[in-house]
Design goal:
Blueprint (H helix, E strand, L loop, with lengths): L3 H15 L12 E6 L2 E7 L8 H11 L8 E6 L11 H7 L4 E6 L9 H7 L3 E4 L4 H16 L3 E9 L3 E3 L11 H11 L4 E5 H7 L19 E5 L10 H4 L6 E5 L4 H12 L3 E4 L10 H10 L5 E4 L3 H9 L5 E7 L9 E2 L15 E9 L2 E8 L7
Parallel strand pairs: 3-4, 4-5, 6-12, 6-13, 8-9, 8-12, 9-10, 10-11
Antiparallel strand pairs: 1-2, 1-3, 7-14, 13-16, 15-16
Helix pairs in contact: 3-4
The protein binds NADP nicotinamide-adenine-dinucleotide phosphate.
The site of NADP nicotinamide-adenine-dinucleotide phosphate has 32 residues, from strand 6, strand 7, strand 8, helix 7 and helix 11.
Length: 382
């Protein structure tokens, strides 16, 4: 039976796991705490993709600190793995170390590695599952989605005025949010596999979409690939994205078209762009679900940050392809009915037609507010 003590240790394990954000994907972030009689012996986490798993990291730290792990309890955010991957099974490390109780938060969804709990029990280890731990759940959510739906984890980010506008009626959006908020965006970009936008934003803003380590921002970890959704290949050869394609990996997702389209495709490929063809949706635009599935399957992109305008963001939201939203709310009001909202694409006369989101976090960033939302699937997908 899991207790309040278990929740306390699981909180520490989960926060430790978070330190590896951007370093372990597509694997889940995992944390582990070893304790005995209520005292923490060691904290470990899965630090880098392909290297030690959290349980082995915690056991190594425990021994390095001069403690014997025998007879201790392990709190792990994910059920210990029971199969060989880049690393040997964690269940064996726990058994060899003489751990007598294991509490895990989320069952291992990977059929090739599942069954760790049962294997531990068969060796006399007490095993409990601590359900309802939101952070532990979130740590492995992208991994579980990739396994079940073959879709990347999508976080949409936009900056808006108090009255909900992301650009003026003429498309001016530089800058709605403060320099401090923009520095955070560079940090987000350094923790994901790809930054995705629409050709509308490329034409309006000519963005670079790279992660820059600006004053005080943490060291850039992984270099996100840049992705543009551009059904007709209207991205100019003179755009900053195309001109820098030799330095930064860049993908344009498109739908097969006529001869002129084929010539543009050829020129973009020559300029170093990786052009990815997907089938069209009924409106003749790139089918967004197929686009994301292809980015995950064919280009191994498992976490995506969307920084797009209202048309692409609306398309992704309406297809239920966005998992989380980060909104930077700036202290500005445009009060212009033609200024651009964050998402468009349908008529929704009734509130009952709104999709539902859960507010997970609020943070003040200089003059702005950062709001984190996750899609609330309890109300059904739209
Ligand atoms: N404040 C902020 O955080 C922020 C962030 C980004 C952008 N913006 C602003 O947003 C404005 C641009 O907005 P936008 O709506 O024109 O551009 P967008 O949403 O970035 O791109 C829209 C384009 O994406 C393409 N697309 C391809 N497949 C699609 C699909 N299935 N569904 C929807 N679109 C698809 C369409 O062009 P094709 O049909 O030709 O492919 C469409 O015109 C700019 O003013 C920019 O400054 C603001």
């Amino acid at each position: 039976m899991a207790t309040d003590h278990d929740r306390f240790f699981m909180d520490i394990a989960a926060r430790s796991a978070l330190r590896a954000i951007g370093r372990v994907e597509p694997n889940p972030m995992v944390g582990c705490v070893l304790s005995r009689e209520g005292r923490i012996l060691a904290v470990g986490h899965h630090r880098v993709h392909g290297e030690l798993h959290a349980e082995r990291d915690a056991i190594a730290s425990c021994r390095a600190a001069g403690h014997d792990p025998r007879g201790s309890t392990a709190h792990v955010t994910l059920e210990p793995c029971n199969g060989v991957g880049n690393q040997p099974p964690c269940v064996e490390a726990l058994i060899e170390a003489g751990i007598t109780r294991v509490v895990y938060a989320v069952r291992d969804p990977n059929p090739a590695k599942a069954g760790g709990g049962d294997r531990l029990r068969s060796h006399g280890v007490i095993v409990d599952q601590l359900g309802g731990h939101p952070l532990a759940h979130r740590l492995s959510a992208p991994f579980r989605q990739l396994l079940s739906d073959e879709l990347p984890w999508v976080t949409a980010k936009w900056a808006q005025t108090i009255d909900g506008r992301i650009a003026t009626r003429d498309g001016e959006s530089k800058w709605i949010s403060s320099p401090a908020a923009r520095r955070r965006v560079h940090r987000f970009r350094s923790r994901i596999d790809a930054v995705l936008t629409g050709v509308g934003t490329v034409l309006a803003d000519n963005p670079m979409l790279t992660a820059r380590a600006e004053d005080g921002a943490r060291r850039v970890r992984r270099r996100a690939c840049r992705v543009v959704i551009d059904s007709r290949l209207s991205t100019p050869l003179s755009s900053a994205l195309v001109e820098s394609a030799g330095t930064y990996r860049t993908i344009i997702v498109t739908t097969p078209g006529d001869e002129a389209w084929a010539r543009r495709r050829e020129s973009l490929t020559r300029a170093g762009i990786d052009v990815l063809d997907v089938p069209p949706n009924p409106d003749g635009k790139a089918d967004l679900r197929q686009a994301l599935a292809a980015l995950a399957r064919q280009r191994e992109l498992s976490t995506i940050l969307v920084e797009a305008g209202p048309r692409l963001l609306g398309g992704l939201l309406l297809a239920s392809l966005v998992n989380e939203a980060i909104v930077h709310l700036a202290p500005m009001i445009l009060a212009d009915e033609h200024a651009r909202p964050c998402a468009t694409g349908r008529e929704a006369p009734l509130l009952s037609g709104a999709s539902r989101w859960r507010l997970d976090r609020v943070k003040r960033i200089g003059p702005d507010v950062e709001l984190w939302y996750s899609r609330d699937d309890r109300h059904g997908r739209q």
